[in-house]
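User: Before I run my own analysis I want an independent prediction to cross-check against. Here's the chain; please return only the structure tokens and, at the end, one sentence I can use as a sanity check.
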Amino acid sequence: MGNVKNAAVAVKKKNFVKRVQKYWVFYILAIVPVAYLLVFRFWPILLQIVLSLKEYSIKGGIWKSEFVGLENFKTLFLDDDFHQIFFNTLRISILRLVCGFFPPIILAIMLFDMSSNKFRRISQSILYIPHFFSWVIVYGIVQILFQSTGYINYILEALGFESVDFLMKSQYFLPILIGSGIWKGMGWGTIIYLAALTGINTELFEAAKLDGAGPLQRIRYITLPGITGVIMFVLIMDLGKLLSAAGTEQILLFYNPTNYTISDVIGTWVYRQGLGKMQYSLGAAVSFFESTIGLILVLLSNWLGKKFAGVGVW
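Assistant: Structure tokens:
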């Protein structure tokens, strides 16, 4: 038995050496991306884990700071404010996912079904433009539209309604936040779906037309099944970054004292505590917790996708 195992190991080593000799150029080319992943991805993850288990001090640095174990996580989970922040993060992220997941799919199908290529290209260019706006510019546009002297209130007053200061009322915070986020990213989100749609055999659409299938029937029986794999891939990726999808940069611009209770999320909390108060270890603990939840969601959603839809990332 031992001789068989040794022989199998020897064969594997021999095959590995042959592959390296045959594809040595590709192995050399792979050194740069592998080094990039090690230095800029895996090394920061290791530092984050170590830092979350220590009480960071500038004098000691990460490695020589006092080891406190799970004390940072205990402080985090016993903090009443963090419970509210976690709830806010989940609410905003789920709203972003639910409200922002389907519009790019619908928009991509509409663009794909356009008969005029010229009009399709023009429409795509216009829809892509908001993606390249910074959140500062987006907030400026929102402010022009929704502030007390903005265009929306100008229209309301012209119609005989009272003006509303949308930006200073907490009940309007989430609709404005989610709506502006969808507007900014919807056009760019259609790219991957348009690429998937171009891979569907056009003869299927022509045959369906000959059989008398209408536009909605073609979408239901040809278009959607043809891009199911891409839809599942995007959904799994979105679920993996659920806790980080609240949009820290956007919220930092949009929130104010009137909506702190519903707008404060994990990202803004880490910004205030980790950077503002220099509690780096506590911030690392929050980031590690966020990453762990994201990993669990990716694995779970991938398993569910393969089980019920037959589609997964791996």
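Sanity check: The chain has a mean pLDDT of 84.
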